[in-house]
Amino acid sequence: MTTAASVRLRALSIISITVVVILILLASAVQATPEVTATEPYRVRGGDTLWQIAADHGPSHIDRREVVRIIEQINDIDAGSLQPGQLIEIPAANS
Q1: How far apart, in whole angstroms, are the C-alpha atoms of residue 39 and residue 50?
Q2: What is the pTM of this model?
Q3: What is the distance between the alpha carbons of residues 4 and 54, in angstroms, rounded to a whole number?
């Protein structure tokens, strides 16, 4: 095999291995989103954060970060847009 062909084959092998490793890492990082079967209304109070609402009122069996993401998704909001008096839906503690 010529030197150029050998270099191309080695580069292709390295790229292929890198792609496979990246795909394996991505597949292991993907987690199933917990299914929320029920929600309940929550009236935002002054000083509330989604993190604190998730900790105090969200399902305890779901990671707090995931509860925050679910609240954001259900209500089409982000953490910075909470306003005192706002009524939002949160995952029911027993869901």
Answers
A1: 15
A2: 0.63
A3: 58
